[in-house]
Structure formats: C-alpha cells, structure tokens
Amino acid sequence: MKRVLALVEGQTEERFVKDVLAPHLLALEVSLTPTIATTKRVKRGAVFQGGITDYQKVERDVKRLLGDSGVVAVTTFIDYYGLPSDFPGMESRLAGSPVHRAQHVEIQWKSQIGDRRFRPYLMVHEFEALLFCKPEAIGVALNMPAAGQTLTRVRESFSTPEEINDNPESAPSKRIMHTCPSYQKVVHGPLVAQRIGLTAIRQQCAHFDDWVKWLESL
Hints:
Structural class: alpha/beta
C-alpha cells in the first residue's frame, strides 16, 4: 500500500477526499489521507484550521507532511480562487486560460518546495466548480428543483466547470449561494459531489482528472 498525504483547504475538501477520492484510490493500493491546512497557532498550542491566509503557513504544513519518510507523495487540494498573492508564481502569471494560470502557480510552487515527492494541485477555481458537473443534483439535495435549473443554465454558458470564474461576485460558490441561500458548504458540498460521482466529474474537469490520474499512477 502506497501512502499519500494531502493538504486540504478545509472540512469540505477533507470530506470529499475521504468519501469520494480515497475509496477509489484504495482499490489501486493507494492510501490517501487528508490534513486540513493550519491557519493560526496560539501560544498554548491550540490549532485553528481551515482556509488559506498566507503562503508561509502553507509552506510549513507541506514541509511537515514531507517530513514523514514513509509517504511516497504529498499533494494539495486547495482552491485557486482567493489564493494569497504571496504564493509562488502568483505575481508572474501571464494572460491565458484559468487552467494554464493555475498550472503556472503549481509549477512554481513545486519548484519552490524542491522535493520530488511533492505535487501541488489547485482546484480551478474552487471546490464548488465540481458541483456544476451536474447542477441539478444541487437542486435535489436542497429540495429546490428550480434552483437546479437556474444553475444548469450557468453551467451551459461555460465549456467546462473549471472555467466558472475567479470573481468575488461570480465564483462557483457565490453563484450557488445566490441561487440557494440554504446551501451549506460543509454539509451539502461533499454530499452533492458524492451523488454526482467521480466519473462524471473527471469527464468534465480535465485539470482535476490529470491530478487523479497522477494519484492513480502511484
């Protein structure tokens, strides 16, 4: 069994890894374990988790995970949307598709860490993009069929869910919450993703699929 550690952004991503990704990979003898990124430490040792506030904290977390000599790889499952500007590659991004810009940051980040076992993954643009692979599932989960129809029209205006944009007003989660005020990220997000299924998500999200293929190859 190959052990892989994943630094994830919060509880939603942790549940997705545990409920959707890990069971799939376990059949391939890859054991994927998520760890929520540390955001703040206080003197008495209490650790507050969830959310990405600056690169230095994330770098410490990654290097701590790489300190485990028993793992074959360390990866991440972090939103590209809202990524702090001090991340490697953020200031040197060129114009291009969202995926190419995220890949540039991933490449620069991997180079900055300098460990062959590290492969960062940034979700373009955020976790909720995966839910747009089957927007009607959101409406079903929230008992709001009309909302599912509205979100389906949003999905149809983009060639892929990974293109739904990087904007405080129109990022994937903002679109869902505007249409479905009762949406709760931690409660509904992993549940909807599980109902959609890994196969459907991979078919529509090429960048995500490339990451899963790499995990499978281990």
